[in-house]
Each structure stands twice: as C-alpha cells, then as structure tokens.
Amino acid sequence: MRTFTFPLAIAIVATLAGCAREPGPPLISVPDSAKLTWQEVPGTQGAVTYANVEGDIFGRGDYLAYVRFRKGTDNGLHLHSQTLPTVVLSGTFYAVIDGKRIEYPAGAFYRLPARLVHESGCTAAADCLLFQYQSDAFDLIGAKP
Length: 145
Description:
It is a single chain. The protein is mainly beta. The protein has one domain: Jelly Rolls, CATH 2.60.120. The protein has one helix at about 1-20, and strands at about 40, 50-55, 65-70, 75-80, 85-90, 90-95, 100-105, 110, 120, 130-135, 140. The protein has a 6-stranded antiparallel beta sheet, with no helix packed on it. A hairpin with a 2-residue loop joins strand 6 and strand 7. It starts with a helix and ends with a strand. The mean pLDDT is about 85.
C-alpha cells in the first residue's frame, strides 16, 4: 500500500500545482456605479459626467470608464482619433453616420472606428449610462459637415 500512496501523492501535488492561478491583472468589481467618483466632462456644463474604473479617461494609457449623458444631450458632429467600443447600460444612445441615425438601447454594443465622422447623443426619453474602454486617452474632435 505504501508504494501506491507515494506516487498518488506526487500526482495529486502535480495536479494541484498545475491548477494554480496564473498571476495577472487584479479583479475589478463594480457592484454599484453610483458609488464611484463622478466628474464633469469639461465644457459640458454637467450634461456629461464620467467615473473612471481603471486608468483615467482623459489621461494616458488604457482606461475603463462609465459615462453618463443627461437626456437630450447631443455631441454634434465629431470624430475620435482611435476606435471607441461602447456598451449602453441604460437609456437609448444614438449615432448619426452618413445621414443615417442608429439607436442603441440598453444592452447594445457598438464600436466606432477611429476617425469616423459622426454625431451622437442621448435621446430625450431618459438619461444614458455607457461603459467605454480604450487603450489611450478619450478625445472628441469637432468636425465640419
């Protein structure tokens, strides 16, 4: 019995060692986004606010952030210098691209390609809550029709 127990113990230890969690990024958990630190986006008179989850939306490097738009807020014609993935968490957000309006209700995802000229905003029905992430600072560059 002793000769069987030792190889079995070695096999168990090897299996457990193989199951160990690889070191990586820390867990990020936001059970209630309302408890985050919300800040006004400059120049919006409070119509657009954001809360960083990781990094800084207006800093350098990767960021994850919630962005809240007051209902009826329109960003006008603009573009972003890099791709902008967005998840709509509440409200209905919209984008107007090449004259075509697309509405994104809660649960929708969209990814705007870098330098795509568009108009966007939150419909008048309810405030919008978005989740956005990028690998560098957010920007909004005004565009002409």
